[in-house]
Recover the amino acids of this structure.
């Protein structure tokens, strides 16, 4: 139930709808019971039963006499209206029944009306919460998760909540009150007969709990398997070109079908167990009705005036007893749904409750500008067990370009991940203008940084919207200017729609060089004082590299730049080149000086020249 309580916390902003829902359900349950009780005067007229009519209007004397008061009041009003005419009395009671059912259904509609806003609002807020938390969590968390599993939690698991936990909101007031009001009326009509109802309630509860015991476990298997085949689908769509190129369609199809077959088996077991709820509760209800028919029938036939029931009372009692079955079945289904929804709620809370190690400190400072230098002060870092950076120290003055070079795995890209605070250092500290970056708000830190990565990450949107990601207030003229700086305007101006041209999924309508130049233009438009270029030209052909290199040189003018380079020809003009090997600095200096040393840098340049 703790997960149920956690989910209900999201209902707080919608308490006005919850109050309307509760009040409507109270009246729904009340008029639902009264609609059966109102049948009694009609049955009395039909069975030609004479009633003693009060000569004066009855007065209310207390809750213990409420039933007697309502009966006398109804008889008095009916006699006043009909003047003793049985035909008019029949019309009066029929009209009364119609009004009761009208009010019952009106309040039933209002209860559902309020519930729509309550339930959909809660679902929206849960989805938003999970999405926001997913974005806030560090890259280290997301790299350990399957994307498809996260998709399953945001879509399938939240949907399960809508039709499991949140459907129970409807049952919290309506069904229990319907049962309570009905039992009150049944006790008033025949206390002894009502005892038989209570004998069956524990039996029904025991059977229902036995059936629903394994629902949570089975539901958890279904939801996890859904995450598996969604992950396979996501990987297939992302890597379709490789799958086709290696003729691996059958392998991935087999993997997907194995997952959906497991999902099929788990779903069958879950649904069949769930489907057992309704017939089991209905059968137990009919057993209860049968006992009432037997015992109540004997009371009707009894000659003992203290125990006997008249025919109209017995029929009303049977109607009330059957009226309990519907809410009882609904409650049993609700209990199953809570079991089923528990697994979904647990998986959702798992994301929501995941601690964020990169969360801003309570007193974090906001940094609005960059004035002097970046200092890496003896930092060490490891992703898992082995350190990928060891005792790394480097000072980058404002306006200078520093290049990081070295073989794959030497720790170059890790430096970019640390200064952008995608990860935190294990030892040492990174300072900007003397401030430790962990003391700054993450958003203000990243506003000082522009990033161009090896993979040009673009979104299925227009060119303009892709570029304005870091500067939403930029004008079309600003966008065009950034495209010119990035050497991209020459091809953008010829596209249909120009700035409004949709580049497709991940920029699939453009070439690699065009995508990279757009990512450079995006960084230019943001106009940050510090640029980080992470192997921005390594995936390009020679012609594209030349165009992109010109764009990069334009962008780095008057900016502080950290260039992580694979192709060493692109960083010969850097103010300082830092050579890394196995996470440590082995050489440092300008291009010509490092070449003259005939050391590691010289070997790297020679290898690329031969290649």
């Amino acid at each position: 139930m703790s997960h149920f309580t956690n989910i209900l916390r999201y209902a707080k902003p919608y308490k006005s709808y919850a109050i309307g829902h509760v009040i409507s359900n109270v009246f729904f349950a009340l008029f639902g019971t009264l609609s059966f009780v109102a049948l009694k005067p009609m049955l009395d007229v039909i069975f030609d039963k004479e009633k003693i009519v009060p000569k004066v209007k009855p007065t209310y004397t207390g809750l213990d006499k409420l039933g007697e008061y309502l009966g006398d009041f109804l008889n008095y009003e009916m006699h006043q209206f009909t003047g003793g005419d049985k035909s008019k009395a029949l019309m009066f009671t029929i009209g009364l029944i119609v009004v009761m059912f009208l009010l019952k259904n009106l309040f039933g509609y209002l209860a559902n009306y309020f519930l729509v806003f309550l339930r959909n609002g809660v679902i929206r807020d849960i989805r938003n919460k999970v999405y926001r938390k997913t974005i806030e969590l560090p890259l280290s968390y997301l790299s350990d998760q399957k994307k498809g599993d996260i998709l399953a939690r945001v879509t399938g698991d939240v949907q399960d909540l809508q039709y499991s936990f949140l459907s129970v909101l409807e049952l919290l007031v309506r069904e229990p009150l319907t049962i309570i009001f009905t039992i009150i009326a049944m006790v008033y009509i025949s206390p002894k007969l009502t005892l038989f109802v209570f004998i069956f309630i524990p039996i029904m509860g025991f059977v229902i709990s036995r059936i629903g015991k394994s629902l949570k476990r089975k539901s958890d298997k279904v939801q996890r398997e859904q995450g598996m085949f969604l992950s396979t689908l996501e990987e297939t769509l992302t890597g379709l070109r490789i799958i086709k190129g290696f003729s691996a369609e059958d392998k991935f199809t087999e993997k997907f079908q194995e997952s959906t077959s497991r999902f099929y088996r788990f779903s069958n077991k879950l649904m069949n167990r769930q489907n057992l709820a309704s017939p089991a509760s209905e059968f137990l209800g009919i057993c209860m009705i049968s006992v009432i028919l037997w015992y109540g029938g004997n009371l009707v036939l009894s000659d003992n005036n203290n125990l006997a029931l008249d025919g109209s009372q017995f029929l009303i009692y049977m109607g009330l007893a059957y009226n309990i079955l519907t809410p009882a079945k609904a409650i049993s289904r609700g209990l199953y749904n809570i079991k089923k929804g528990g697994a979904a709620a647990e998986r959702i809370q798992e994301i929501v409750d995941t601690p964020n190690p990169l969360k801003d400190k309570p007193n974090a400072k906001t940094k609005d500008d960059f004035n002097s230098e970046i200092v890496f002060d003896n930092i060490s870092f490891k992703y898992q067990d082995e350190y990928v950076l060891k005792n790394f120290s480097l000072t980058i003055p404002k306006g200078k370009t520093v290049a990081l070079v070295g073989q794959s795995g030497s720790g170059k890209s890790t430096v970019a991940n640390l200064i952008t605070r995608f990860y935190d250092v294990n030892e040492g500290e990174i300072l900007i203008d003397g401030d430790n970056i962990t003391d700054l708000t993450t958003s203000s830190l990243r506003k000082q940084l522009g990033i161009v990565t090896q993979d040009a990450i673009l979104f299925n949107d227009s060119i303009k919207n892709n570029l304005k990601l870091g500067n939403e207030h930029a004008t079309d003229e600003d966008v065009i200017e950034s495209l010119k700086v990035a050497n991209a305007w020459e091809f953008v101006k010829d596209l249909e729609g120009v700035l409004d041209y949709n580049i497709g999924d991940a920029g699939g309508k453009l070439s690699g060089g065009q995508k990279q130049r757009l990512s450079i233009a995006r960084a230019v438009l943001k106009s940050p004082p510090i640029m980080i270029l992470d192997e921005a030209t390594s995936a390009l052909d020679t012609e594209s590299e030349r165009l992109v290199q010109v764009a990069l040189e334009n962008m780095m003018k008057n900016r502080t730049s950290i260039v992580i380079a694979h192709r060493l020809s692109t960083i010969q003009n850097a103010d300082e080149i830092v050579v890394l090997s196995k996470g440590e600095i082995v050489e440092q200096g300008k291009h010509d000086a490092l070449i003259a040393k005939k050391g590691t840098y010289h070997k790297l340049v020679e290898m690329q020249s031969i290649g």
